[in-house]
Amino acid sequence: MNLFSLSLRNIRHRLFLSFLTVCAIGATVAFIVLFSLFRDSVEQGAEKGYGPFDLVIGAQGSETQLVLNTFYHIGAPTGNIPANVLEEARRDSGVDKAYAMTTGDNYNGFPVVGIDPEYFLTRYGDRTLKEGALYTKMGEAVVGSHVAQTLGLHVGDTFTGAHGLVEEEGQHSGEEETGGHAGEGETEEHSHEGFLYTVTGILPTLNTPDDRAVFTTVDYAWAVHELQGEDREITAVLVKPSTLLGAHNLKQTLDGNGGVQAAYTSKAVSDVVNAVDQGSRLVEILAGLCVLLAAITILLSLIAAAGERTKDAGLLRLLGKPKSYVWMTLISEGLILTLTGLAAGFLAGHLAALLFKEVLFAKAGVRIDPYLWNAEHGWIAAGTIAIGLLASLIPAFRMYRLHPLALFKS
């Protein structure tokens, strides 16, 4: 009987204990893989979330809140600013493109965003819509791919929005409006049954937070709330500067002027990512504890196996098998269990990422890629194998040192 067959026979002989060992290794690897995929997705999603718009102008308040609401459609806006801020930004020689944004309404929990349709060309280039065409007049709307899929919307469908920003747990399909109260910092929603939207187009899958928003013309908010003249305000201005110096000069001009703030998008996003990294350190500690428990599980399993097979090992030695053969039986058994748990862990981790993909995107606008394989996977595999090998060496070395008669008599 060759070494591999003997190791498999020994594993089958202690099937339940072997199964628990594989589960411990697999659960640990799956947890680390899922954490790795989530962290990479957050970093990539944060980078892709704001596109070429390095500066955002809005009402004074938290820069992070302004950026998250403007680009990631998370939370409430910091307030409104005068509409003439847009023209002031466009007149600046350091500005390449500037677009006004109006927010504050929702449709079944998804934000309704008013913005110039040229925004899509500036940010995503000349990409073809999945269906239909961009809006050209008030009352027309384009919906993100996630919104269309979740609510079953098609070109030509009509709907009415509601005032306020609500959590997505309250969403439902159809023409009926959601009720209840908004989350912290948000207002109670009121339906706008007199203002009807018509879907003219559906965006392709962009893998950005724009997949989970409804877009229409900037003036929709003024029409819905019957605002005239100086009462017409905007939520934010998205600025694509022509140069970094242009962004700096515009920020210096507008920041703190008349209740207006100008924020560097990358800085605010970096603050959020850094906060996530701080939290990830705790998760890394928990992952380390899981690795330690998995190593102990392998060690205990192989010690139990060595205790059961000391007489068998002694008999093999008396029959002329070398020390190395007996030594390798335990090591190969440990490696088989480790590799099986590693494969199961990789499969479970990516499967969990696939299952949680839509939930994470719906909540935070971050699209996790369950099919992503990176260099960190190699380190996970190498570390798992090394730990399994190390745990196998301890009982194997003990059996290696004992005399054949001592093994047999034990």
TrEMBL record:
Pfam family, one: FtsX
ABC3 transporter permease C-terminal domain span: 285-404
Subcellular location: Cell membrane
Chain positions covered by the region annotation Disordered: 169-191
GO cellular component: plasma membrane
Sequence ranges of Basic and acidic residues compositional bias: 169-179
Protein family membership: Belongs to the ABC-4 integral membrane protein family. HrtB subfamily.
Name of this chain's protein: Putative hemin transport system permease protein HrtB
Organism placement in taxonomy: Bacteria, Bacillati, Bacillota, Bacilli, Bacillales
